[in-house]
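Thread: "does anyone have the structure for this chain?"

Original post by V.I.:
We have the sequence but no experimental structure in hand. Need at least a predicted one for the grant figures.
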Amino acid sequence: MPRNRREEILLAALDVFGERGYTGASIAAVAERVGLSQQGVLHYFPSKDRLLAEVLRLRDERGLDVIALGNSGGTITLDTISAIIDYNRERRGIVQSFTVLSAESVLDDHPAAGFFRARYSESRAWLADLVRAECGDDLPGGVTPEQAAPLLLAVMDGLQQQWLLSPDDVDMPGLFRAFLALLRANATPPGDSGGDGDGT
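Reply from O.Q.:
Generated one for you, C-alpha cells below.
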C-alpha cells in the first residue's frame, strides 16, 4: 500500500502513463484516479514533466528492490537480473509503463528522452563490466562484453514487449535464462584456468 499521498499519486500516474503513454495522459486523469483535484496533484508535482520524472525514478527504485529478495547480499549478478525479470511477471503495470514510456521517448522533444538515454548508457556500461567479470572476454561467436551488454538489454526489453502482448505464450524469465546460457557457453571467467579442458 502507498505510504503517503505523494506515493499514491505516483503509483496512480504510473498506471495512467502505462495505459495512455505520456502524451495521452493528463494531470486530470491522475487526479481522478486518486480522488483529488488537478490543483491537488499540482500541489505535490508542479508540472506533468516533473510528475513523469518522479514516476520513472520510482519505477527504477521498485525494480532494484528485488535484489533484496535473493541471497546476493546486494551484489548484482546476471542471475540477479534473471530474478528481477521473474519478479516483473507480478508487476505487469510497471512493466507496461516502462515499455510504453521508453518507446515513446524516441519522439522529438519527449521529456523522458534524457532519462532513457542516460539510463541505457549507464546500463550498457555496468552490464559490460558484469559480463566481463562473470564470463571473461572470450564469449561465443567472438562477441565482446561491450557488444553483449546492449544485446542483453535488447533481449530484456523485447521479451517484456512480447510478454505484455502474449503472457501465456512467452516465458519471459525462462527465455532470458536460455539467452544467458548461450552467452555463458564455453566462457572462461577471469581467474579461471578452464580446468583440464574436458569440461569437468
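V.I.: this helps a lot. The first helix runs from residue 5 to 24.
O.Q.: and Confidence is low (pLDDT under 50) at residues 67-72, 195-200.
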